[in-house]
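Treating backbone geometry as a discrete language has practical consequences that deserve illustration. The amino acid sequence and the backbone structure tokens for this protein are reproduced below.
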Amino acid sequence: MGKTYAMLQAAREAQAEGRRVLVAYVETHGRVETEALVAGFRVIPRWPIAYRGVTLEEMDLDTVLAEHPDLALVDELAHTNAPGCRHARRYQDVEELLEAGIDVYTTLNVQHIESLNDVVAQITGITVRETVPDQILEQADEVGLVDLPPDELIQRLHEGKVYVPDQAHRAIDKFFRPGNLTALREIALRYLAGQVDHQMRAYMEAHAIRGPWPAGERVLVCIDADPLAERLVRTGRRMATGLDAEWIVLHVETPEYATLPEAARDRIARTLRLGEELGARTVSLPGTKAAEEIIRYARAQNVSKILVGVSHHPRWIRLIHGSVVERIIRAAGDIDVYVISSASDRRRASAAPAERAPLHYTPYVFGAGVVALAVLVGALVHGVWAQANLTMLFLLAVVIVALEWGRGPATLAAVTSLAAFAFFFGPPSFTYTVADAQYLVTVTALLVVGLVIGTLASRTREQAQAARSREAYMAALHALSGELAATNDIDAVLQAVGRHIGATFGRSVAIFLPKEDALEPRLETPGFPLSENERAVADWVFRHGHSAGYGTDTVPAAAARYMPLKTSQRIVGVLGVQPSSSGPRLTPEQRRLLDAFTSQAALAIERVQLTEEARRGDVARETERLQTALLNSISHDLRTPLASITGALTTLADHPPADEAVRRELLQNAREQAERLNHLVGSLLDMNRLEAGTLRLRLEPGDVEDLIGAAIAQLGEAAQQRDIRVTVEPKLPAVPMDFALVTQALVNVLDNALRYSPPDAPVEVVARLAGNEVQIRVEDRGPGVPPGDIARIFDKFYRIQHDGADGHGAGLGLAISHGIIGAHGGRIWAANRPGGGAVVAFALPVRPPEPSSAAADTRTDRGDRAPEWATPGRAS
């Protein structure tokens, strides 16, 4: 007693220091002194919850989070919340407050500490059901002990300062006896001393203070379906805390594990979860012999101490089958083995009805039928076969039954085989009278050998079943991982996860991924109960990174279980799995497989997201590079004509020349520079249309000769002043083309040839039919293309720098031609001309191309091989 009062006093001190303190939940029990301390704080009204005809009051967690004080006061940390609250336990509410950045003062009794629960029950005779995991106390920045001598506490109970008189008398008689209080006080003092020692050593280590650091130890707790398992885990926690050692909870899945009833397997799963809550590393290993696997694992993990529970099986069973504990002790060597026993657990185990799997009579009927068949075959060959061969016949029947139906039917088959053999084939027949002592040895050997063979055969069957089960799980996991590894599309990843979970577990699935500031369902298989409440649970899981919903302690009333898709870096989404309404619950192995599926899904989603982020980064970098290249490439080409135009117009406006010829020359120069600027801007717009995929073709049959003529005409004076020789093969077929666009492509090629060849050198244009293509090539007599640059000639902003060039152009003409010809399904290439000069050629298909647009990759033909007539070393 006195915890709440001490907490409120500490809160007053914090408030005096300027911190904003809020009472989230405080239980005053009607005490005047306590209520007086509460009066100075802002108190959050409690949340009323109707439950089974009564109204329960709980802490309003959402209001506290919305208020976001510096310090929240939360009484009774071990309290169990009413159904309908977000969390099943109040300590989980406190964890959420801490995650939100709110400091918390809270209280609890020593009997509410999980690792001390069984010790308190042993001392007081009362098992406390509301407990708090030890990690909660270990996370605390400060733990204060509110201590009161037992005599003074009992006196205060008598005075009614703790409970009302009737309740106080019952408490004194049942719980607050002097011996109990003294023992509990010692436990509390020892526990707190251990916490202080841990803090002291943590401080020494953080500040590099040298001290006598002991060698580390490791504790291994071995559990099975025995009721003693939870006590073992709590004992292991206390031992590991006292030794400051890592500890592991281990369960060996022997072939018998598959035959355990569902309740026993659930107990094992609960015990493993208890170990995780208390801070242990939990491991489940498959194995045929538990003792051998435990020792092998202990040596591999450098375990120094093993905790096992004494067997509750009857002595005669231990004599027949042996004791796992004794085998561990014999094989442990230098590993310390602690055998834990509990009279209360032993009584509880013996008093509780034995848990057995449902008995199915069909295998026993079939086993008896196999023995009957053996009797029938034996009757047919009796007198022909020797008696030893008849015994082999019955042993064969036992083996068949063991392999097909297991140990129980095999034992029945062995006993009935003995009875049938003795009655039908033993001398004298049809009686159980033993006429010869040697015959007694025969039937006894038949029984023993039959039981042994049946046991071994059934064990082989169980091992094969366990191996098949593990193989099926591994195959399912391998299939999922293989499918996830083969795709980089987020929707395909989600579909694969939903399909595999549905096929493996028979559950409906929903997957939620973040989008901006919200969580939206990206996959929902049929039958999943997606509602606003379910969305809220999924959102909470995503924000807090903890599982919630059905089967958990957080919002257990939800219709599905939600698990965070968590990687080492972040939470990428939430997986919702609906429990089966009619089928069996997931076994521990299936739950582990589902966890593995969840991890694989999280990694695959993160991989796709990182790939997409990397791609966007590459695009951004490429865009920035192109923008830089564009500015570098065209800045001069933009400034030069603008400067010329500005200079000519300024001269005409400010100092108009008297000479008409000079005025005309200035205007002509301004017009030429404006046309040059217009051509440059048009080229940039055409390039943008090609890359954006907005260029659409209007295909109509076109004449190649008209195409060449239109291109030369568009060149204007530049073509009139040059020697352009055109050769067109007779009877060329019409070519499907967008006439205006292909004309523009040819104009760019011709302009390039005229620009990079001497003014007195001819430029040749040749058109011919080659297979199903019409090829047009343009040859010049210029310096040609440097051999290392032929592959780059169609790149944007690429220009060849040499003395023969006029320096004009932005390096976009051939790139635009490349895009236009590619959109038509044609090819374009370049080569150096034998004898000097360059050849730029393109080919258009005579047949109509497949529907396409400039959105396609216009660089796919960059590596096409040029025809022989355009390659170096061949004259045309």
